[in-house]
## 1
Amino acid sequence: MRHSLPLAPQFYVTAPQPCPYLEGRMERKLFTALQGDHAQELNDTLSKQGFRRSQNVLYRPSCAECSACLSARIRVADFQPHRGQRRVARRNRDLARSTGDPRATAAQFALFRRYLAARHPDGGMADMDLGEFAAMIEQTPVRSRVVEYRLPPPAAGGGGGTAHACGADGRLAAVCLTDVLDDGLSLVYSFFDPGLSARSLGTHMILDHVVMAREAGLPYVYLGYWVPGSPKMGYKAGFAALEIFKHGTWAPIGDPRDHDAELHPLSVDPIPQQVAQIALPETLPAHERRRG
């Protein structure tokens, strides 16, 4: 028997599992499916409310013990790189950037495996195979692009190439899966060659996305979550003009130490209250915006 999907987005909560950012804590996520004719509008609207996309799912941390995962974005018009970031930009001026449809390649997967082995050998993606990687890149119901960064091609006869990802266009150095929102660019997932650590490629990709957003007239670059107290996420606070989504509104991050209260269990709203506060796209017909 054929069953039709519900018109309005339905929200669910995952089972608790160990938090990847704060040792000794448990995480859970509030999520909904991203599908149908209004997927782009839903992604645009919920991204402004701290949600992130993973394939055809939108999620937001909804932990019982804290509310420390704060969505972060850069105000493009106000961003000015500091001295170290300007050095990173100069160091990577020789990279060639290309953007294309979300299609996975063998070169991307090889780079992805090297990145995980060096940076996240025990992470949740460590056992991802080629098919799962392709799904991560290609299963998107919204406007997504793959942004690739390549080194200059080796000089003719120089013998400088390596077999794993080298060709006429130069060796693949970094990749970012990027969503194009109505108000900005969202870095869904990025990875890079761990052998090129001196280039600070993670920082370079963020700086370059600010450039692309400015060129496209988009006001924000969404960076995912910043987590007070997490060394893994601390680098995001180093970008100027950074805003965080906290207590239902976007505001400048200010002093990162001012957000330690979000680590306390009393900072968490009950799940029904969280869901009731979610605004759905105004483009949906009124009967589709009812959550029931």
Note: The CA atoms of residues 116 and 270 lie 35 Å apart.
## 2
Amino acid sequence: MRGAVMHGPGEVRVEDREAPQIVEPTDAIIRVSAACVCGSDLWPYRGIGVEDSMWPMPMGHEYAGIVEEVGDAVTTVKPGQFVVGSFWASDNTCPVCRSGYQSACVDRVPMGALGAQADLLRVPLADGTLVATPDMPSDDLIPSLVAASDVLGTGWFGAVAADAGPGKTVAVVGDGAVGLLAVLAAKQLGAERIIAMSRHESRQRLAREFGATEIVAVRGDAGVAAIKEMTDGLGAHSVVEAVGTQESMNQALHAARPGGHVGFVGVAHGVAIDGMDLFWSLAHVHGGPAPVRHFLPELIDLIWTRQIDPGKVFDLQLPLDQAADGYRAMDQRDAIKALLLP
């Protein structure tokens, strides 16, 4: 089969890989209908957080497709069904999963290590990881269903962790796909005001389409000052951090009002929170790798009934063979998110 493999910083190739087989009776094999490039894929693409011994690496952890084969122990999905899965495989039965944190499942498997940017994908722990759609989706729903696999679920978790809801003012730090979908989530959760922080017109436009009521086009200390000015000097009730840098974390924490909530879902690189900053902020700070599986049934229903259209974050659609162009476009911020069609 074909699959995207990163051989070093900036070097992505689509090449022949061995087709996956059932390894454990809890596995499923799916034919990937669509995959995509994630903002977190850009960290290794830029040579950040990887060691030489890690190359080459299969790429991709966001996926949706049709079940081709299941192991003997799989009972909840069957061949021929269209399914969506999380970027972490989870058993969905351990105590951590049952508390709603499937991304920290005691048996979790990182799907990125298996490489979803490919024709076929082995999904471990299929019963706890995959959720079938009510029927075979129309082509126009597939981008949104792929978004549910990570960026929508991650943006949703960011908004939930930030306690977004009715009567709340929500600020979103980051205008990538996750940040934009955190705006969508905050809108669905009933937030009264949603402030999207973005300096790019196309992303500002999509943020407004997803529900942003206001835009702040500056960042850092100036961004914090703008949020404070818009909230009578208090700060936002809820702040979603969707970048993963020191500046974005500082901005999120400082933009929250005392007693407010910060939901951080950006993959952190070189980020440290000053203890005294945290102490005096009186903020609730919660986040990490999103337990997408926890939200998948609800998100699939919202997509299926066309109440939300998160697939709009894909502003570049490419055949799988051109995956390298998708990485390049996102790295240069020429695209918000690239959809890959095998």
Note: The radius of gyration is 19 Å.
## 3
Amino acid sequence: MSRKAGYSSGASKGRLDLSTIGGLVIAVAGILGGLILEGGKLSDVSQITAALIVLGGTAGAVMVTTPTALLWAAVKKLPLLLWDSTGSPVHVIEEIIAFASRARRHGIVSLEADVDDIEDPFLRKALSLAVDGADLQDIRRIMEIEIHLAEERGEAEAKVFEAAGGYAPTIGIIGAVLGLIQVMKHLEDIAVVGHGIAVAFVATVYGVGAANILLLPAGQKLKLRLQRTLELKEIMLEGVIAIAEGLNPKLIRSKLEAYNPNEEDIRATSQDRLDAASSTRPAAAQ
């Protein structure tokens, strides 16, 4: 039942999130492609000063409004935009069923040796409480508090990016105004004025683009990642409660499959495990 026995905690090793990468590529390519088709050049929107104003101003505004600890916690979530490390419901359910089967045969105390090998801290704590004989209501109350706190932390971290998405367009306007101020100094040369106005509005493009292509979508994606994580915790909690109640593993499976729409994947995974176990029995007997 432990990792040494071939079971994981249900936490996925992670995979590259191609939707994030593909979305960014398509969005940038679409915008720049449209610019080029209209006769523009990449150099028209390549302004270091505009990027400095927008990125620096947005970062500063976020730092002013966000506590330092929360800000660093949000920054640490950036890899989740490119790397999906959320566990799989299939793996979680299969592990819980394995624990339930052993507890059914040998008693829940027999799981004590496996608790320390569980990767996921939430599942490890919940199962440890059950093995120690904690009251079912206490287990549910304690773990639901953890779920609630995890939800609040995740929501707060996502709101950091949403706040940045709100500031960026306004900072872009500030950059445009600063550029126009410089343009007003050269009204005697209409060619310089025209070029200066075009350059000034690049900051607005950067601000609106950063908000709607990167920052706001990042906040939304983190919320979706959080939702999936909370659903996994719910599966773990209900599974542990069912084990502590001594329910039949088949009933537990039916209960937990309601949390995952891909029931066929779960059954296929279970069958693969049974086939693998059957194929290794002769060798083990020898």
Note: Residues 1-12, 276-286 have pLDDT under 50 and may be disordered.
## 4
Amino acid sequence: MPERTCGTFWSRWRLKAAGAAAALIAIAVAVALTEFAQAAPSGSSGKPVAAKAASVPRLTTAPQPGASKGSDQSITVVGVGDSVTSGQACNCATFVAMYASDLAAARGLQTTAVNLGVSGMTSTQLLAKMSTPGPFRDQVAKADILLVTIGANDLISLEGKQPAGCPATCYGPLIDSIGRNTQLIVAAAQAAHPGHPQTILVTDYWNVFQDGDVGSAENGGGFQSWSDRLTRAESNSICTAARAANATCVSLYSPFKGNGSKNPTALLAADGDHPNAAGHQLIATTLLANTPQSPL
């Protein structure tokens, strides 16, 4: 192409001058191409490598949903429920405080514990407090992790019954009601602050009535066997409801009683009904073991 263009131009002049000029141009072009090839790295477009790298922006990644808040922020643990949550008959740190402390140590977090447990509270009463605007609901809304233990007091009316007089058809409706309330309690917690994701852990019970040596001495073996069946049925209802509401069910039955043959006396207060310090620590440990690695 260059030779053809030059030949057309220089045909207006003498042939000798045209040939000399064409030769000079060809030499100049060849020298320029040689220098360009030596300056450019093999396979490059001719742009300096350093300049190309500098033009690539650095990307930063925002924290993803569910990621840990980190040790510079505090996670609020709130416990709601009955006398097990409130720590009745123990005179010790409750499992709510123990859990918050253990979580901080295990995960390198700062935690704050708030205990809203009320002795004697039923699932119906807790649902009402969770659903009504006010200080209680406001506290629940601040929870990063919510611990729920409720339902035993709903069965108080059965405690005076003889086992033979209250089969599954007798206690079934009450247990079904506890399950429905549990699901609504979890939903109420989620609705209290919809923009604030929570980890919700719902426990069942090792026994809804007295247990261990005290329970056997005061109620007899027949009653204990019946209360065990009642407790297992309630546990199934609570856990089914918790899972249906996207909460985590944490069973306390096996930690306290194994397959049902373990004597839980060493974990109970003198009343044979509520956990002692060792029992509260066992609950806290069980909750921690069932807490998602990135709870928030």
Note: The radius of gyration is 37 Å.
